[in-house]
Amino acid sequence: ASCVQHRLVVRDASSLQVRQLYTCLDQIQYIEWSSDSLFILCAMYKRGIVQVWSLEQPDWHCKIDEGSAGLVASCWSPDGRHILNTTEFHLRITVWSLCTKSVSYIKYPKACQQGVVFTKDGRYMAVAERRDCKDFISIFVCSNWQLLRHFDTETQDLFGIEWAPNGCVLAAWDSCLEYKLLLYSLDGRLLSSYRAYEWPLGIKSVAWSPSSQFLAIGSFDEKVRILNHVTWKKITEFEHPATIASKKTIVYKEVEKSPSLETEKCSFPPTGALASSLFSTQSKYEISQVPVSLQYIKPVADRANPKMGVGMLAFSADNCFLATKNDNIPNAVWIWDIRKLKLLVVLEQLCPIQCFQWDPRQPRLALCTGNSRVYLWSPAGCVAVQVPRKGDFQIVSLSWHSSGDSMVLLSKDNLCVCYLEREEV
């Protein structure tokens, strides 16, 4: 699904044929599929309205108007039949039921980076709250929205919460001014707390491994610390130095080369695809000889939100690899072997990394750097793929299909679907 101003376009994922076309009341600012792909919500924050469309019954429609309370966020519940709307100033979360048309309210949600999270099985929801100048977490049962547990947290300014994939442990962490990570059980017991250091800026990113065995913490000190699920203690930490010296690490460096033109074989002026292939620069990877010095940017110390520390990290679907990005070295992606707890590969790009995401089915990483190419890495090697499109197509974000056979590449004004051939085993 994609939106253009106030129009919602639903296409077939394999053929890109238009399946449905809907017209909303105002410019669409957010869209989200229900878990069963039968409904899609369109949020219009400026007007405080959410419209819901049905794929099976195109004539059916639903409009939710928050009125004077306003709207700043909207999302589906895991069952795909309830919508959670967060009002302006985070005064409350309103839970709307599409089946019974009933309404429930959750008071005092906190305005933080990640304040509402669901367990992977969809049974429970955790909400970060702020009341009486203290942080709290409430856990709800998603089947009837009854409160299961309510407890305060030992945080100065709760910044985010995240369930382990198995739904047994909830991680909560403080703002960057206080290095503190807390781990709670489903019944609200504090299992463990972790603090790496005290005074400098603290936690910047957090990610669970798919098996729930490891919790990775990216920090402003340019390190990733890995906690284990047995003792919740640190088992190792990964540094991100500007110089790669180990001969056991493979460094792939992106290089651009202009294609050589054989003018006697070319009829001028070339047109269409021929022109774009002749005059566009080509990109490929070369293996660099260690030691390799990466481009390091010193952050500006007197500005808010400094470009430093590990701001992006993600585990592969098979738990074998961890990809990280150190904002001080914006052009590099670091890939760690979790089985050996060692650095395996560094991808050095020509432009800063905008986004990276693992294939949901196999250890294959896709990344983009704001140009017209998508880059893929797997244990077999890496490749740069040019998007075959006329004009300038700057990829700023990407998203894998759940099957791993295709991905959506997004620019500021356009999208492109990239289909990958599945290798026969």
From TrEMBL:
InterPro entries: Centrosome-WD_assoc (IPR052778), WD40/YVTN_repeat-like_dom_sf (IPR015943), WD40_repeat_dom_sf (IPR036322), WD40_rpt (IPR001680). SUPFAM superfamilies: WD40 repeat-like. One of its GO terms (cellular component) is MWP complex. It comes from the Eukaryota. Pfam families: WD40 (PF00400). This is WRP73 protein. It comes from Oxyruncus cristatus (sharpbill). The gene is Wrap73.
